[in-house]
Amino acid sequence: xxxxxxxxxxxxxxxxxxxxxxxxxxxxxxxxxxxxxxxxxxxxxxxxxxxxxxxxxxxxxxxxxxxxxxxxxxxxxxxxxxxxxxxxxxxxxxxxxxxxxxxxxxxxxxxxxxxxxxxxxxxxxxxxxxxxxxxxxxxxxxxxxxxxxxxxxxxxxx
Length: 158
Hints:
By secondary structure, the protein is of the alpha+beta class. The protein has two domains: about 1-30, no CATH class; about 35-155, no CATH class. About 25% of the residues lie in helices and about 35% in strands. It has four helices and nine strands, in the order ββααβββαβββαβ. The strands form two sheets. The protein has a seven-stranded antiparallel sheet with strand order 3-4-5-9-8-7-6. Strands 1-2 form a two-stranded antiparallel sheet. β6 and β7 (about 115-120) form a beta hairpin. The longest helix is centred in the N-terminal third of the chain and has 14 residues, at about 15-30. It is flat.
C-alpha cells in the first residue's frame, strides 16, 4: 500500500486521507483481546471453558473473584454424554476431598432424572443417567449436565 504524504503549510508532513482510511479499516476489523477487556472492565464475572469436546464449564464468580457456581453443559447436541463421564468431570473439577462431609442425597425425575447431593461446602446436582441429544439445539444448550453451587456464595445474585 502506498501512502501519499502531503506537505502542510507549516512544513509538517500530513497523511490525511490514506492514514484516516487505514485507521478506519483497523477499527472496523480490529480484534479485541481479553487483556484489553480486563484492563478496561476488570475481572470477568463469568467465564466459559471447554472441558471436553462438546462439553463446556461456565464459572460464575462472586465477591473477590471467588468461584460461586460451576455449570457443566453440552456445547453441541451430536452425541450421548454418558453419566460416568459427567461424574468424572465433576470429580475432576471438585474432587471429593474438597467437598466436605456429605449430607442429604435425593433424585428428582421430571422427564429427566437429576441427582442432588448436599455437602458441607457445596451442593452438587448432576444428570442421574446418560444425557441424550435433543432434537432442538437451543433446548440441549439449556440443559445442564451438572451444577455445583458453593455454600459460601449462596447469597450472591446469579
